């Protein structure tokens, strides 16, 4: 709570909790933010099976965190997952209610299609082609209403430049 209070005192628009590996950690942050009246954005590390690292389905994570406090987070995001894997994850039965719900609207995507545990300890970077990656990101916007788009591990200015081109239709 002291960090949240300090950020609010500095005039931030909202507090963002990112790279969350578990719903328990997310719940603790949500309770602290609710106690301070802080607008909040939550972003979970997602695997290609549509689960947070602790095994919770993304849909269940969003439902649980939305039920904490008087005001749910402004929105939810995922990070550390390749956009094509994220699209498959959203299409899974347990996560299908998220598609178009307006609750999970962001992705900071990895350049690699490998899961976080497969990337851990690798000596060489695994990365998708920037154009293919950007096309997958743009497809998430069209197909699932994902509006907050950005890069995570392994991405650089090439990925973002191609994403901007896809989104602007150039």
From TrEMBL:
**Top-level division of the source organism's lineage:** Bacteria
The source organism is Eiseniibacteriota bacterium
Cofactor(s) needed, names only, are: Zn(2+)
Q: What is this protein called?
A: Homocysteine S-methyltransferase family protein
Q: Does the keyword Methyltransferase apply?
A: yes
Q: Name one Pfam family in it.
A: S-methyl_trans
In the record, biological process GO terms are: methylation
**Which positions does UniProt annotate for Zn(2+) binding?**
80, 152-153
Q: Where is the Hcy-binding domain?
A: 1-167
- Gene Ontology MF annotations: metal ion binding; methyltransferase activity
Q: Which UniProt keywords apply?
A: Metal-binding, Methyltransferase, Transferase, Zinc
Q: Which InterPro entries match?
A: HCY_dom, HCY_dom_sf
């Amino acid at each position: 709570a002291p960090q949240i209070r300090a950020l609010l005192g500095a005039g931030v628009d909202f507090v963002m909790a990112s790279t969350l590996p578990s719903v328990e950690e997310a719940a603790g942050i949500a309770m602290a933010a609710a106690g301070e009246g802080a607008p909040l954005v939550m972003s979970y590390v997602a695997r290609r099976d549509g689960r947070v690292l602790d095994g919770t389905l993304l849909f269940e994570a969003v439902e649980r965190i939305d039920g904490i406090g008087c005001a749910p987070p402004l929105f939810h995001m995922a990070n550390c997952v390749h956009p094509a894997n994220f699209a498959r994850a959203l299409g899974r039965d347990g996560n299908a209610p998220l598609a178009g719900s307006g609750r999970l609207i962001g992705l900071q995507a990895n350049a690699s299609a490998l899961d976080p545990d497969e990337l851990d300890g690798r000596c060489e970077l695994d990365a998708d082609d920037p154009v293919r990656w950007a096309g997958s990101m743009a497809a998430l916007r069209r197909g699932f209403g994902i509006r907050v788009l950005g890069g995570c591990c392994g991405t650089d200015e090439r990925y973002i430049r191609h994403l901007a081109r896809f989104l602007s239709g150039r």
